[in-house]
Amino acid sequence: MNGFAQPSGHKHRVASSGGVIRWGKECARAGSWRTDGSVALLVPTGAPASVEFVRRCLSVLSEQGFQRVITGALSPSEQLGFLQAGFGVYEHLVLLVRDMSGPLPALPAWPRVRRAGPFRRRQLLAVDAATFSTFWRLDQAGLREALEATERRHLRVVLGEGGTVIGYAICGASGSRGFVQRLGVEPGLQRRGVGSKLLLDGLYWLRAVGATRVAVNTQVGNEPALGLYRRMGFTDDDAGLSVLSAGLGARQVARS
Ligand SMILES: CC(C)(COP(=O)(O)OP(=O)(O)OC[C@H]1O[C@@H](n2cnc3c(N)ncnc32)[C@H](O)[C@@H]1OP(=O)(O)O)[C@@H](O)C(=O)NCCC(=O)NCCS
Q1: Residue 170: inside a domain, yes or no?
Q2: pLDDT digits (tens, 9 = 90+) for 119-164
Q3: Residue closest by Cα to atom 20 of ligand 1
Q4: Cβ neighbours for 78, distance < 8 A, ≥ 6 positions apart
């Protein structure tokens, strides 16, 4: 559902169309949060959003019937306008980066990684549901979004006994910037090298397509993932990232 809102007495009209909200030169992508239709996901594009723009986004989303709004992962400078508009921190994330000029660890032969067609993608979503909390879980649309977020993408799975997906990784690249978008291994089959193989396979692909720096983020305290990324040559970026949230009624929903 899209709509238009025209705050009175201002030179710019705020326009919402096709999942994009624009006001002057500012722009943000907006849509339903994948696992909860009452929650809007707001992702600013381009320069950090001003407090005025964020307020206008809130009124558009409120008119569209959303009860709550959550942002994408924002750096400290990108957070400012949101914090001034009344957002609070929903979750702190650790940003890790890897310089790709150095060597990569050798790629182990086991386990074998494979491409994933539609059937394996459905199985992959079951692994995702088992590894991530309800809020962060991917559905079909979220998976598509993760794959379309970058100019190039690399989705690989590992199969267990019986040929079912037990682990998957999505990496992406835009120009020389690389990203590990998603990585998950079936809980009962972790700590056997599946995550390492999937991550390394993705890093070799990222290097082959010209990524010079690879970034990944994960929740503070996610020790298995942090341990794996640091072991594979990622280092913590001081800036960190946060996902912010705000209620669209009187209620404020910041979690911490
Ligand atoms: C992170 C994850 C993908 C790792 O997969 P995995 O198959 O268990 O990884 P590996 O067996 O290759 O482990 C490699 C290294 O990661 C670290 N690691 C993995 N599990 C760990 C744990 N429970 N505690 C601490 N370190 C851990 C260790 O350094 C480990 O090496 P070691 O076993 O020689 O000590 C898996 O734990 C997972 O799916 N977690 C939930 C989803 C998630 O958080 N994904 C990442 C964020 S996008």
Answers
A1: yes
A2: 999 999 999 999 998 888 898 988 998 999 899 999 999 999 999 9
A3: 224
A4: 44, 48, 49
